[in-house]
Design goal:
This protein is of the alpha+beta class. 42% of the residues lie in helices and 23% in strands.
Length: 663
């Protein structure tokens, strides 16, 4: 038995102070009653002294020299139990206060109390003022009582350590009792809610801090965690400070292990995150707007020629009308003059109508306003685009537009549809630097229904060029946001990503046929107006799949929206077990995984997934600002982050694992 080890055990349990505690007193008194003793004490020992942590009964326990205590005698005994019931044995106690008192203890029993690490730290002492008979059942009772005391001390130490952890934690933390009242809160919690100290909140119902309109939902969510014993749940609520200010928070609520039910809350201020989300949404919209203006810029060169021609028509016909009017003033023939003026005005009206069409198309491309989605005649769209793009494509490019007679109407945003077709035509032009033929064909078709159902009417839009085509490596990343084979001053890498995003929103599909030096054909399939949208996803190479693993639903939805807006398909899961099952079905192109999962760690999930698929691109997500930029070679993004940062990191991760070879 090592004195140093025993003293270390006392320190770990927080028992060196010797201060009595009411809770331990109650337990010792209960054990005294169960044993039928007149007095009882929990005596702890260090190198030189013995002192009571708790006592109950007719005789008080006091601190004394270690050699005079029953605990000192029982510690060396292997079986951990001592009985003293005769004068000779009493003498061994060196004058124990219970034995010397009149009337004193006639029979005294002591059982060793051990720490969780097995070190003996003291004894449970029981005394009878009349001779007690020792029995095997009595021995077992005393040993069990000592074990209960040891368990109570262990729980006490854990509670003290947990309280210290909460008080020192930088995050706002609180513990609620079964009634939802605040049992414990730290300084960060009080500061967040605008209170002077944690004591000002102790005993107050937590729901009193919640704005009235959120209380019913908050009570239901907290009760679900408390009584269903969910491991953890994230709850978004709005709290109210004493000054009336409202605070949006995310609460991680978990059930605490212990003899009674209680809830631990970790409260995080969402104000900065809400502002960051709004900023991300604004930046995303700005990016989309920039791409629209990029398209407008490419159209402007060709339109300038048309507008100059129309302006020449307007000016010349105005001059002719002025000359005719002057001739009439000088006595010219009225019939001939009015006929000439009517002809001049007709040319003016025609030219002005053409200017109106061109300017409206430019404004529609650049407009941020929502456009009503209704049935659209694709023949009209093709005709307008032909006139709009004829000059833009350049003299070396010939544009053929073929529209079949049986094309059904479609229900899409007309501006997005025209921009989609324009993007494909401009890409085709860029793929033919020496010129060539571009073909836009629109036709109707019948496609098989789902699960043997009736066939469905669709509209098919094909854009084909005679250009350089794409290799398998380039095709695998063609729809990836920010990926481009053009120079920095000629492309943003958003054109095909926006095409794919539009087709997905419209419920259609996109397919690409291409080969190096053999040109490229894009085939867009859109459901006819009035039919159910197609549920089949775009081809795998055209829509990279992301498996997003994040236990926080709000965070997961925001990140998923970033991916979807950029043209990715997203599968969302909340834990490692579901992620592993999902990985075994359709392998994703990208695994985006939160580091802190309820049943594993993000790096472990990625490493396990790469055992089966070494080419899996992965990125880790974390809310901890102190986390490293990489863990086990896997890039880490700290929340909140921008859409651009997310897409750039994912693109780099895919390139690093050779994603261009397998999409």
């Amino acid at each position: 038995m090592s004195e140093g080890h025993r003293l270390e055990s006392l320190r770990r349990l927080g028992l060196r102070s010797g201060a009595p505690e009411a809770g331990v007193d109650d337990l010792v008194d209960l054990l005294r009653l169960l044993a039928g003793a007149d007095t009882a004490a929990l005596t702890l020992v260090d190198a030189a002294r013995a002192w009571p942590m708790a006592s109950a009964g007719v005789l008080p326990a006091v601190a004394l020299e270690r050699s005079r205590s029953a605990a000192d005698l029982v510690l060396p005994i292997p079986e951990g139990l001592l009985w003293v019931d005769d004068a000779a044995s009493h003498a061994r106690l060196g004058g124990h206060p219970w034995v010397r008192t009149e009337p004193g203890v006639v029979t005294l029993a002591a059982a060793t109390v051990t720490a969780p690490d097995g070190q003996p730290i003291g004894a449970l002492e029981l005394g009878w003022c009349q001779r007690a008979t020792r029995t095997g059942e009595g021995d077992a009772t005393i040993r069990r009582a000592a074990a209960q005391v040891a368990t109570r001390l262990e729980l006490r130490a854990e509670a003290v350590e947990y309280r210290r952890f909460v008080e020192l934690a930088p995050d706002a933390m609180a513990v609620l009792d079964l009634d939802g009242a605040i049992e414990l809160g730290n300084t960060a919690f009080a500061d967040l809610l605008g209170h002077a100290s944690p004591e000002a909140l102790r005993g107050r119902p937590f729901l009193d801090l919640v704005v009235p309109e959120h209380r019913d939902r908050g009570a239901a969510d907290l009760a679900r965690v408390l009584f269903a014993r969910q491991r953890v749940s994230t709850i978004d609520l709005t709290l109210q400070r004493p000054d009336g200010a409202r605070l949006q928070v995310a609460i991680s609520a978990g059930h605490l292990r212990g003899p009674r039910r209680s809830l631990q809350l970790v409260v995080r201020d969402l104000s900065e995150r809400v502002r960051a989300e709004a900023e991300r949404a604004h930046l995303t919209e700005q990016l989309a707007e920039a791409h629209r203006f990029e398209t407008v810029g490419q159209l402007a060169g060709g339109l300038a020629h048309d507008l100059n021609n129309l302006l020449a028509v307007l000016v010349s016909n105005l001059q002719l009308a002025e000359e005719t009017l002057q001739d009439l003033r000088e006595g010219g023939d009225l019939v001939t003059g009015f006929a000439a003026m009517a002809d001049d005005l007709g040319h003016l009206r025609s030219a002005s109508d053409r200017v109106d069409v061109l300017t409206r198309k430019l404004l529609q491309f650049a407009s941020r306003a929502d456009v009503h989605v209704g049935p659209i005649r694709l023949a009209d769209v093709a005709g307008e685009l032909h006139g709009l793009l004829d000059r833009t494509l350049g003299p070396a490019v010939t544009l053929d537009v073929v529209v079949d007679d049986d094309v059904p109407d479609v229900e899409v945003d007309p501006g997005e549809l025209e921009q989609t077709i324009t993007n494909l035509l401009l890409n085709g032009r860029d793929a033919m630097p020496g010129g060539g033929r571009l073909t836009l064909r629109i036709r109707g078709d019948q496609r098989p229904g789902r699960e043997g159902g009736p066939s469905r009417r669709v509209a098919v839009i094909e854009v084909a060029d005679e250009g350089t085509g794409m290799s398998e490596a380039v095709l695998a990343r063609a729809f990836e946001p920010l990926f481009t084979t053009k120079s920095a001053d000629k492309g943003t890498g958003l054109g095909l990503a926006s095409v794919q995003a539009f087709i997905q929103r419209a419920g259609g599909t996109v397919h690409v046929d291409t080969a190096p030096d053999e040109g490229t054909r894009f085939t867009l399939v859109l459901p006819a107006a009035g039919t159910e949208p197609e549920v089949t996803r775009p081809a795998a190479e055209a829509a990279p799949l992301v498996l997003l693993v994040d236990p926080a639903e709000r965070s997961r939805r925001i990140i998923a929206a970033m991916f979807e807006q950029a043209g990715y398909r997203v599968e969302e899961v909340a834990d490692a077990a579901t992620a592993r099952a999902r990985l075994s079905s359709e392998p994703p192109a990208v695994l985006a995984c939160e580091i802190a999962l309820p049943d594993a760690t993000g790096p472990a999930v990625v490493v396990a997934a790469r055992v089966e698929r070494s080419d899996l691109a992965a990125v880790l997500l974390s809310s901890n600002p102190d986390v490293r930029d990489q863990i086990a070679g896997i890039p880490v993004l700290v929340k909140p982050f921008s859409s651009e940062r997310l897409l750039e990191t994912v693109a780099a991760a895919r390139a690093d694992v050779g994603a261009v070879d397998h999409g």
